[in-house]
UniProtKB/TrEMBL annotation:
Name the record gives this protein: Carbon-nitrogen family hydrolase
Keyword annotations from UniProtKB, A to Z: Hydrolase
Residue ranges of domain CN hydrolase in the record: 1-239
InterPro entries named among the record's database cross-references: C-N_Hydrolase, C-N_Hydrolase_sf, UPF0012_CS
UniProt source species: Streptacidiphilus cavernicola
Source superkingdom: Bacteria
SUPFAM superfamilies tied to this protein: Carbon-nitrogen hydrolase
């Protein structure tokens, strides 16, 4: 399996229309990959809160159309990162989109864990409520986004839903870059699955981005890691390694479910 993570530089001096066209062109250049991944909120910026409401769009809007065409032209599965989704009947959402090689939107995922501690994303965006997986010819993908990495229970639920490869777009800041790498490796080891973690580069909303997109195997080994700037990170691996790891080191079968705190005495 050949995977390409497009670590876009999200520069506020570049217009959303120009960045959309540039991202689509970068996707088209990945012809020959099986799966291409873009980062979180790459069109407007993960910390550009003031731009979100005006820049929000539906799942059949201009970004969706551009990504569908790019996936079809390149003949790849495309995880198009996430957009600010405008729901006509509700709030805005941080929503990721997965396209098949024919350009069909096969899955969308509204980010469950919103970052900000009652500010920013947590204050202005709605929270997703559904786990999302997708069956492909190279295995089952589990979808998560950025801050979700801090919540292992989400990844365990996706594991129980059949996930073998986690796809995690992000706009993770440079000041917590070590957490980014640590959590990506931890989720891979815990779930004995591949983690494809695609971050942004550049600075938006005044926040320097961490870059360092990475691909981690089910043993926690980093197969490839990007630098801090814009880069296309391409790596090949055997997706069957997830099943082999689970067979060779069957830790998941020793899970003990339903553990409760002891009753109080007295």
């Amino acid at each position: 399996m050949r995977v390409s993570l497009i670590q876009l530089d999200v520069d506020p001096a570049e217009s959303p229309d120009a960045r959309r066209s540039r991202a689509a062109a970068l996707v088209r250049r990945q012809h020959g990959s099986d799966l291409v991944v873009l980062p979180e909120l790459w069109l407007l910026g993960g910390f550009a809160y003031d731009a979100w409401s005006d820049g929000a769009e539906p799942l059949d809007g201009p970004t969706a159309e551009a990504m569908s065409e790019a996936a079809k032209d390149a003949g790849v599965w495309l995880h198009a990162g996430s957009i600010v989704e405008r729901d006509p009947d509700g709030p805005i959402y941080n929503t990721s989109m997965l396209y098949s090689p024919t350009g069909e939107l096969t899955r969308s995922y509204r980010k469950i864990h919103r970052f900000g501690f009652d500010q920013g994303e947590a204050a202005v965006m709605g929270a997703g409520t559904e786990l999302v997986t997708a069956g492909t010819e190279f295995g089952t993908l589990g979808l998560a986004t950025c801050y979700d990495l801090r919540f292992p229970e989400l990844f365990r639920a996706l594991l129980d839903a059949g996930t073998e490869i986690f796809v995690v777009p992000a706009a993770w800041p440079a000041r917590r870059r070590e957490h980014w790498t640590l959590f990506a490796r931890a989720r891979a080891v815990e779930e004995q699955a591949f983690v494809l973690a695609c971050n942004t580069a550049g600075t938006h909303g005044g926040v320097e981005q961490g870059g360092r997109s990475l691909v981690v195997d089910p043993w926690g080994a980093v197969l490839a890691e990007a630098g801090a700037g814009e880069e296309v990170l391409t790596v090949e691996f055997d997706p069957a390694e997830a099943a082999r790891a689970r067979q060779e080191f069957p830790v998941l079968r020793d899970r003990v479910m339903g553990i409760r705190a002891p009753a109080e005495r007295g």
